[in-house]
Amino acid sequence: MQYEFVAQGSNDVWRTFNPARPSEEVGRYGVVPPGGLAALVERARSAQAEWARVPDVERGLVVGRFLDAVTEHADRIAEAVTAEQGKILAEAKAETLKGVAEGRFMCGEAARVGGSAAGSARPQVRNLILRRPRGVVVAICPWNFPAMTPLRKLCPALVFGNAMIMKPSQFTPAAAFLLAEIARPLFPNDLFQIAVCGGAQAGELIAMDGVDAVSFTGSVETGRKVYAAAASNLIPVQLELGGKNAAVVNDSDDLDGCLDAITGAALMTAGQRCTAISRVLVRDELGDAVVEGLAERTQAVRLGDGMHPQTTMGPLCNEPHLRSVEAMTARAIEEGAKAVAGGAAAVAEDCEGGYFYQPTVLDGVAPQSTGGCEEIFGPVISVIRYRDFDEAMEILNGTPFGLTSCLFSDSNRLVQRFLNESRNGMLHVNHGSVPDINMPFGGIKHSGVGPYSVGASASQVYTTEHAAYIGWN
Ligand code: NAD
After folding, report:
1. Which of 183-192, 364-373, 452-461 has the lowest mean pLDDT?
2. Does residue 455 register a pLDDT over 90?
3. What is the pLDDT averaged over residues 196-222?
4. Inter-axis angle of helices 174-183 and 148-159, to 10 degrees?
5. Are 301 and 84 spatial neighbours (Cβ–Cβ below 8 Å)?
6. What's the whole-number mean pLDDT along residues 390-408?
7. Beta carbons of 345 and 270 less than 8 angstroms apart
8. Ligand 1, atom 15: nearest CA belongs to which residue?
9. pTM listed for this prediction
């Protein structure tokens, strides 16, 4: 066992296991005792009052020092991510450093969006629009990015003068605990607290007096519960939910480059990224070449323990998730899709009982089938063929999701149509679906509710707005 975060007196303990070798215990974490949530909120409130008195610019500098320390510990954090989540170490380090880079981008935001002046309707009155820290924010995180998601929520929360209570996923708490350990000497006590608890308790926390907002990343189904709990408390939400992201391959001078970009975006983190490409919509004429090219690329994947330098894809994160990917892919095949690569669970060397799934390409997928419109959240690429661009746009927009999308085309007319018509929060032309550190991140339709993360829009979650009228005579 590598990680132990169990406070004295904790009776209930969560245990985590390495998804590459599930008999290997990785961590133990003390669960918040019954009735303990209110105490967390109370402590967060008094820490927040102290922190909000620190000037905006100074808060940004302290968060910058925190990010320096996170960078120093990036290898340690990455190891924790790989040990519990399963992704390869290089990706775990990259997600940690990306979280740091996004955090640095946010450090100046509090100083930039502190307020603005507005015109006045009266003589000798000056109107100002002010923004102030919101208060105590609850953050709820999934298991696919155990370091980056916490950083994406924590940095803006702190920069804008809030306290944060974070509930990590039960499968991957180690990285969040390491971040809290690094933060401790830099911030007021209890400004950043971790709440290890189940979903029902997290719902209670959101609905509690003294909680001012919730930022949630996870599935659509849980998102609905979080939204309902927040509604009962009349607090704002930031919901970042699932996707069924498509790459539309219409025409390309460089089909190999296009397929490399798609394969990378589809298989990174074994397809367990909310922005992973999981559908490839291809113009009929290119269909066979695309299917062949994707299948070929899956042959190059080396499944194994994410700690091993030769491995290019780790296991899925946990057993229920492996069973779900297996069942959904089997259903897609029963519904008529043909597995031209993969299509089943896998075994990997030195990884007894590991939750591996073969990189899979499904051809002949019908748009409204399981492979065509449900989020499988594994290394499974569904290929759907189309006749013309109108049909491509109809298929692209024909799911309840609206997170990210890509178009590969050299036609300016089609690119402009895609930018107008793709009903997704993020739009990529001629590259994969990996976002930049300085761009708004979020989705529309069932993929997201509330302001996007990263950038100025985050201030809408993490600050309150005030109209001030200052008269003089
Ligand atoms: P999940 O919805 O099962 O769990 C997310 C978190 O919510 C966990 O910490 C879980 O314990 C907690 N939870 C469960 N029930 C709850 C309740 N009633 N109230 C409050 N919290 C509760 O998601 P997951 O399986 O951990 O993650 C995978 C999902 O996350 C996928 O759907 C993926 O697309 C989505 N995701 C979205 C984004 C994005 O930015 N849009 C990013 C990453 C992951």
Report:
1. 452-461
2. no
3. 98
4. 30
5. no
6. 98
7. no
8. 199
9. 0.97
| List of domains in the chain | 3-241+447-471 (3.40.605.10), 245-445 (3.40.309.10)
Whether 173 and 147 have beta carbons less than 8 Å apart is answered as no
pLDDT score, position 433: 86
Predicted local distance difference test score (pLDDT) of residue 41: 98
- For ligand 1, what atom is nearest to the CA of residue 206? 20
In ligand 1, which atom is closest to the CA atom of 443? Answer: 41
Ligand 1 nearest atom to the CA of residue 167, by list position: 9
Q: Bin 155: left if φ > 0, else alpha if -120 < ψ < 50, else beta.
A: alpha
Q: What is the pLDDT of residue 112?
A: 83
Question: Above 80 in pLDDT, residue 397?
Answer: yes
d(CA 216, CA 163): 16
What is the pLDDT of the chain when averaged over all its residues? 97
Res. 109 pLDDT band, cuts 50 70 90: confident
Active site residues: 240, 274
* Mutate-to-test residue for ligand 1 from 201, 222, 461, highest number of ligand atoms within 8 A of CB: 222
| Site to substitute for ligand 1 among 217, 220, 433, most atoms within 8 A of C-beta | 217
Interval between CA 240 and ligand 1 midpoint (Å) = 9
CA distances from 110 to 105, 197, 259, 375 (A): 11, 31, 41, 36
Using CA atoms, how far residue 192 sits from 151, 155, 245, in Å, is: 12, 11, 33
For position 7, what pLDDT does the model report?
85
240 DSSP 8-state letter: E
Half-sphere exposure at residue 189, Cβ-oriented, CA atoms within 13 angstroms? 4
CB 124 within 8 Å of CB 200: no
Pocket, ligand 1, Cβ cutoff 6 A: 140-144, 167, 169-170, 199, 202-203, 217-219, 222, 225-226, 240-243, 274, 375, 377, 403, 443, 447
Alpha carbon distance 452, 238 (integer Å):
7
Measured CA to CA, the distance from residue 43 to residue 450 in angstroms comes to 27
Question: Which residues, 6+ apart, have CB-to-CB distance to 352 below 8 Å?
Answer: 21, 23
Q: How far is the CA of 118 from the centre of ligand 1 (A)?
A: 40
Question: Ligand 1 atom 9: the closest Cα is on which residue?
Answer: 169
Q: CB of 406 within 8 A of CB of 392?
A: no
Ligand 1: which residue has its CA nearest to atom 23?
218
What pLDDT shows up at residue 10?
80
Report pLDDT for 306: 98
